[in-house]
Specification:
By secondary structure, the chain is mainly alpha-helical. It contains 8 helices and no strands. It holds the Pfam family Ank.
C-alpha cells in the first residue's frame, strides 16, 4: 500500500542503490519523496550519495526541499561533494533552494567534504556558486 512505512523505506533503499525504475514506480504509486528514514535522510540524499543521475534527477524534480538535513545536519549537497558526483553537485547548485553554506552538526560544509576527500573539481564547482 502506498504511503505505508515499509514502502517509504523501500523508496529510500531503491534510491540508495540507484534503482531508477523502482524509484519511479514507487513514486508514481504514491510514495512520498520527502519521507525520512530513521537517520532522518530523504531518498534524494541517498541518490546524491549513490551518484545515479537518472534517479537523482527524477527525485530532485519531485522534491520540494532539496536542502533537507538528516540527523547529522548533512544535506544531499554534502553527500554529493563527499562522493565527487560532479553532475549532481552542478544540478543541486543550480537549484535556488540549495544553500552551499549549510553546515552539518560538526560545522562542516559541502566544500569541506569535497576538500577532505581530495575532490578538487568538486571543490571548484562549489566555490563557483
Amino acid at each position: 500500500k502506498a504511503g505505508d512505512n515499509s514502502q517509504e523505506m523501500t523508496l529510500s533503499y531503491a534510491a540508495k542503490w540507484g534503482w531508477y525504475s523502482i524509484v519511479q514506480n514507487l513514486v508514481e504509486n504514491g510514495s512520498s519523496v520527502g519521507q525520512r528514514d530513521v537517520l532522518d535522510r530523504t531518498p534524494l540524499s541517498y541518490a546524491a550519495a549513490n551518484g545515479d543521475q537518472n534517479t537523482f534527477s527524477f527525485l530532485l524534480d519531485k522534491d520540494s526541499f532539496p536542502d533537507a538535513a538528516d540527523k547529522q545536519n548533512r544535506t544531499a549537497l554534502s553527500y554529493a561533494a563527499e562522493k565527487n558526483h560532479l553532475t549532481i553537485l552542478e544540478m543541486l547548485l543550480k537549484d535556488q533552494r540549495v544553500n552551499a553554506e549549510l553546515k552539518d552538526d560538526k560545522g562542516r560544509t559541502a566544500l569541506w567534504w569535497a576538500v577532505r576527500h581530495g575532490h578538487e573539481k568538486a571543490a571548484h564547482i562549489i566555490l563557483q556558486k
